[in-house]
Amino acid sequence: MTPAARISAAIEVLQDIVERRRPAADALKDWGLSRRFAGSKDRAAVASLVYDALRRKASSAYAMASDEPRALVLGMLRGLRGLARDEIAALCSGENHAPAPLSADETALLTAFSDDDAPGWVRADVPEWLWPSFERAFGAMAVEEGQALAARAPVDLRVNRLKASRETVAKELAHLQPEEGAWSPDALRFQPGHDGRGPSLQAEASFFAGGFEIQDEGSQLVTLLAGAKPGDTVVDLCAGAGGKTLALAALMANRGNLYATDLDSRRLAPLHDRLARSGADIVDIRIPRSRGHEPLEDVAGQADLVLVDAPCTGSGTWRRNPDAKWRVRPGALAERVKDQAEVLARAARLVKPGGRIAYVTCSMLPEENDDGVRAFLGKHSGFAAVAPIDVLAGAESDFSLLARFATELGLQLSPRRTGTDGFYLACLRRGD
Q: Which domains does the chain carry?
């Protein structure tokens, strides 16, 4: 496929997303299955165009005076990819599957392309209904925070301490030009290529040998700060596919008791193979038999640490899932807040006196972060928030610079602040 034909394909996929109100991944998959002539590079290029258009949906729609798929793609080519008006016009020849030629209005808008006078939520590429939350969280820097969330994300890996060192894995992957993570001592980072994609790390021999797992550095960092130590009894209460479970096992040096569970037992399925590859043998996977069943009843009151990677809107991961921010609705936020309260109440029953809950979200919204912690503390008088400075002081490495990102009750990471996905962490200690 020519570059122009790929642009036409991206417009077609975006039209499918709009008309059928479906996730971008589903629309792209169907497009690829029905276009057997498109090779893997073509499919990757079309996907990159689609996701880039979704990253800048609001600002492109404003600058192009339209939210139609064609306008979003043209605006993205100008605003994100930096193509000049004449370069875009050359791609829109109308020949050989290229998009139709630019109209006079499109030419004028691309010439004067700007969102400088747009409302904050447009410049930040954040849904309008969520803008008050962003402003409450970040104040004068809310636009910059949103713009960082609209950028492309790097690919991070976490070196598995049980099998390798960062230096060893870096040498094994030297051909991919890894960078050391800025925060986590176990992180290596790979910048996206011109097409927005990172390297195929899961095809590397050291991955199959268990030397590393793909994991954003922010996810690594909040797991480190949770405070698990060798010999502890630890619960990963919302383990999902087990990324943080594996990190906890490594931090515990494979000593102690580590329980992993999730209300949706299907999400735990990948964890079995990942554990076998990692060499972690302290993990006890507990699968709930039914919705109301508590699979950790025998652990109640015994845990040194309960990690709650709470279900949330996922606003902190919008760099990686740009279509998700346009699909989330106010009702979903209310449901997630309810879910977070329920899982924190479960965690409170599991932690022992003197133990702690590490409450984590991949969210930038105060409703899911400080507000949720404040509501929990209001109902559970036996718990108190650990001051963020004390959370940092108790870590294995010097993370004191993160103190500037403290909220009232926790820590807020973000692409602009820390170069990571947007993660929140609050530690809650149960009284003795």
A: 3-117 (no CATH), 155-191+198-209 (3.30.70.1170), 217-430 (3.40.50.150)
